[in-house]
Amino acid sequence: MWHVLGAGSLGTLWATRLFRAGLPVQLILRDQTRLTSYLQSGGLTLIEQAQKQKFPISAQTIGHLQPIERLLLACKAYDAAEAVTQLAPRLVNGAEILLLQNGLGSQDEVARAAPQARCIFASSTEGAFRQADFQVVFAGHGHTWLGDPLDLQPPAWLEDLRQAGIAHDWSLDILSRLWRKLALNCAINPLTVLHDCRNGGLLEYPAQLACLCSELIELLNRCGHSSAAEDLQDDVLQVIQATAANFSSMHQDASQGRRTEIAYLLGYACSAAQRHQLVLPHLQDLHARLLSHLGARGLPSH
After folding, report:
1. Where are the alpha helices (DSSP H) in the chain?
2. Residue among 180, 182, 181, 194 nearest 269 (CA)
3. Going by C-beta distance under 8 Å and a sequence separation of 6 or more, which residues neighbour residue 103?
4. CA–CA distance, 191 with 188 (Å, rounded to integer)
5. What is the DSSP string of 142-191?
6. How far apart are CA 301 and CA 57, in angstroms?
7. Has residue 127 got a pLDDT over 90?
8. CA 284 → CA 77, 111, 196, 275, 278, distances in Å?
9. Residue 198 DSSP one-character state
10. pLDDT of residue 130
11. I need a labelling partner for 106 at 20 to 30 A (CA). Which of 133, 185, 186, 268 fits?
């Protein structure tokens, strides 16, 4: 059974494809109000190539007593540890948790909250957005890398992903993948918030991008992830061009008055630099400006 917590874009995208492939899926919602709302909607809707399909996936609240052997955790990074703490009594010994969070830091928090479970990290390039509650638009086929720094043996359920058409690879160095994605996010997302622009608008600020990439490369090398630092600036520019018309997730969160994942992206990078006694003035200044910008809008800085 795939228990899925987090009916956001990625959680819905995974749940509908697993269910469509004939695999058992159980959605976990935070409370009775949310469950009632879901039941009224009649299921999760996947919109792919303008075709809508609704899937009547069964759902339960966090407080349900059904044991959990495999959990797909698809909530925001700042909610991950608390959600797992609430679910801890339901997790069987040797349960597996697949983590789909942005950034770094939440993975360690989840591992501490569920010492009886195996945590598998994921880094995905799939594009999806919620059109309405319990509805997801599959915007772009991508790839998902999965791995476990503590156990390099791939789990047997990767076959489920193949069956569901979820393109994936088992990575023997998942941390480098996560650091690379963190660096891309740190170079792009905060600037889109401060300049209030789509990703493509950043092409007007080449000097800022170059300075940030240079410092991020220094950080990746110091943290022992030199492979994640290779051609970083070229990759940042490619991502900006490929997603030029999109608003970054951080921009969307900030502009809609929602809490951002700053603590698990730029905050994590700056803390890592501090731990390694690395002075990165542009990165630290960007972090300070972003905190001030969010604070002025009454949004949390953590």
Report:
1. 9-20, 32-41, 77-87, 106-113, 158-163, 174-194, 206-222, 226-229, 232-242, 249-255, 266-275, 281-296
2. 182
3. 77, 182, 185, 261, 264, 265, 268
4. 6
5. --EEEE-TT--SPPTTHHHHHHTT--EEE-TTHHHHHHHHHHHHHHHHHH
6. 35
7. no
8. 21, 28, 20, 13, 11
9. -
10. 87
11. 133
pTM of the entire structure? 0.94
List the chain domain ranges: 2-171, 176-296
Homologous superfamily of 2-171: NAD(P)-binding Rossmann-like Domain (3.40.50.720)
Q: What is the pLDDT of residue 129?
A: 86
- What average pLDDT score do residues 174-203 get? 97
User: What amino acid positions are annotated as catalytic residues?
Assistant: 181
Distance of alpha carbon 145 from alpha carbon 92, whole angstroms: 25
271-276 long-range CB contacts below 8 Å, 24 or more apart?
272/219, 272/223, 273/219, 273/222, 276/219, 276/222, 276/223
